[in-house]
Structures are given as C-alpha cells and as structure tokens.
Design goal:
The chain is of the alpha/beta class. It is built from 18 helices and 8 strands. An 8-stranded mixed sheet has the order 6-5-4-3-2-1-7-8. α5 links the parallel β3 and β4. α1 (2-25) crosses α18 (356-363). It is globular, with a radius of gyration of 19 Å. Bound molecules: S-adenosylmethionine and iron/sulfur cluster (2 copies).
Amino acid sequence: MRKIINLVKVISELWVVFFRVVLFKFGFVVKPYKICWLVTWRCNLACNYCELGQANKQELKDRELSIEDIRRIAPQFRKMGTKFITFAGGEPLMYDDIFKAIRYCKDLGFVVGLVTNANLITEEKARELALSGVDHIHISLDFPGELHNEIRNNPDCFQKVDSGIQFLKKYKSISNYHLGIVAVVSGMNYDKLDEVFNYAKKNTLDSVALQPFFINQIRNQDMAGKLTIPKDKLGCLNADIDRFINKYPGWIRMSSFFSRNIARYFLDPKMKGTTCFGGGLTTNIFPDGTLGSCYYLKAEGAGSLRDKSLGEIIHSSEYRSLLKRVRRRDCPTCWCAVVHEYNIFFRPLEILRSLRLLRVAQDGR
Ligand SMILES: C[S@@+](CC[C@H](N)C(=O)[O-])C[C@H]1O[C@@H](n2cnc3c(N)ncnc32)[C@H](O)[C@@H]1O
Ligand code: SF4
Ligand code: SF4
C-alpha cells in the first residue's frame, strides 16, 4: 500500500515538474523548482579551471547575505513550491552559518544538498554536517591521487578530500545522507575516469556525477592546453562513458542522455537542440542575494533578495531579459546537469531507459 502511495506522489510530482518544463520551454517565467544557493564567493582553493578563490576575502564576506537574510528568503521559495536547495559557492563551508542555514532549510521542508571541495571537513565538521540534517553531500574529486592536486592547484588536496570522506562515512548513519562524488571531466583526467569509479566503489559511496569542464572558464590560462581534451580523443571518452553507463547502472547520477552528450559539448558548446532551464526550473542565488540562471548570468538591475521579494524580482523586466539571454544561449555556454537534465522530459525513450525522472522527483539531482 505504501509503495502505491509513494508512486502516486512521485507521479503527481512529475506532473508539476513537467508542467513547469513545458511552460519554460515555450517562453514563460516559471516558479523555481530547485535553487543553487551560492552562499559565498570565498574559497580556500584556487583550482586551475575556476575563477573563484583569488579575490579579496574580507571584501567578499562583507557583501554576503546574513543568516537572518537566509531565514527571510528561504520561506518565499518554499511558498512558491521550490523543493530542493543545494548550497555551493565558492566553498560553502567557508560561510560561517552554513550549518544553521542547512538546518533551517531542512526544517522548512526542503531537500537540502551541499557541494564542497571537502578540504575543510574535519571530524567535528563532519559531525556538525550530519547533525544539520543535510540530505546530499557531493564531493568534488577529479581523480583519486596526485593528479587531483595538480588540477586543484594544491599539494594536499586529495589527501584532505580522502580524510573528509572517511569522516563523512563515519557519521553517515546520523542522517543517512547521500554521499557522492562530482568529477570535472577535462583533458587531464578524461582517460582515467575508471579510477574515480573504483575509488567511489571501494569507499562504498552512493554515486558518481560527471561534469564536463566549462570551456570558457579557465582561471589559469597556462593550463588551457592541458585541460582541453584533444578532439580526436572525444570518441574514446564517449566509449568510456557508454561503458560506465552499462557497468554502473543507476550509479551515475545523471541520465544516460546527459552523460552521452558530455563529449559532444566539447565540439558543440551551444548544444543545439537542447534547452537550458537556468533561471527557470533551477535558479541561482548569489552571495549578495541577486538571482540568476547560473554562475555566469545574473539578473543585473533586478535587485537583491536582501531588499526585494522573490515575486518582485522574477516578474521584473530585468529578470525577463535574463531569461531571453538564457534561451538564446547568449552566454559562455555549459553542459551542466543541474540546468540541462530537464531536457529528458522531451525524450520519452530516455526516460524509460534511465528512469532518471523518479530520481529527479525524489532527490533533485
Ligand atoms: C564552483 S564549485 C563550488 C563548490 C566547491 N567549491 C567545490 O569545488 O566543490 C561547484 C562545482 O563546480 C565545479 N567546477 C569548478 N570549475 C569548473 C569548471 N570550469 N567547469 C566545470 N565545473 C567546474 C567544481 O569542481 C564543483 O564540483
Ligand atoms: S572549484 Fe570550488 S574549490 Fe575550486 S576554486 Fe572553484 S570554488 Fe574553489
Ligand atoms: S547554458 Fe549558459 S545560461 Fe545555461 S547554465 Fe550554462 S552558461 Fe548559464
């Protein structure tokens, strides 16, 4: 009986998402279903492919939303029917009140996730995270060894990630969170992804997500050559991804549609024939409270959630012009599961193949 009730709940949830997906696709402003809340731009690392982590930290901190702001803003999303919040950044663990923010959003009824580089996870922090009630923790790990240090520009990075993961495993039973890896696929690791899967398996982690690196965001231009995947190797990457899909069914966090298009993104960054749902189904909140589609595009001039309501901002002309840019792909372009996964609503075969939608409805990634 309970199974039938759950199935009915999932199907009705899917209808809500489907309805918003169709409305957004045809040009309407929709209520956000999921938010990526970038609580800080500050970061303890300065990875080669990321522009963050270099700026003046105090200046950035002064502009961040306070926990009181978060407590005022989050209920507005809940009222609009937002189901998922993922905290990210910069490094979200650098935000002083991150555990309070997670707890508060959990108490409001959101499914709450965290994306972290895991370098700041001590035993105490792992325990606090578990007690915060977080539902999902996604650890960035591009390779389980020295190569990760090179990519992340820090000699102890992998060692810290590994110890963070061990602490998180220790406290997992407190709130039974999902513990997975996000690996950024670049020229430095595209032919070594087996090792990421092996590491995740050996550590009994719950999932691996593959994310092609945004080719327009390389902080360290000296590394551009190394990060770029040679075009004649994209076929090998495709074959490997196919193999992972078959070898680890249900364990790769994205749909097979998303995964099978990773290599294509490097050839066709605009990903013709797909829609970006950024600013629609998934919205970003930036550290100063501005809304946007993604890291790259903000609704400049629409105001901040610090002093305007969510309704006012998403119905403003500035927000509408931002969505026009998203639809035209007048942006640096990316292939990111958070904003592109909804494309499978228009590919029924993919839905059947991956049953991914059930997961979207249940836990949001
Ligand atoms: C911006 S980070 C914020 C969270 C945290 N600092 C971390 O690294 O996990 C969010 C995710 O974006 C990934 N990322 C950073 N730069 C990227 C790029 N140029 N292309 C694709 N993904 C990138 C990170 O590896 C991480 O998984
Ligand atoms: S990818 Fe994450 S850890 Fe690396 S610099 Fe960017 S925000 Fe920091
Ligand atoms: S496709 Fe463009 S608008 Fe959409 S998330 Fe990527 S960079 Fe942002």
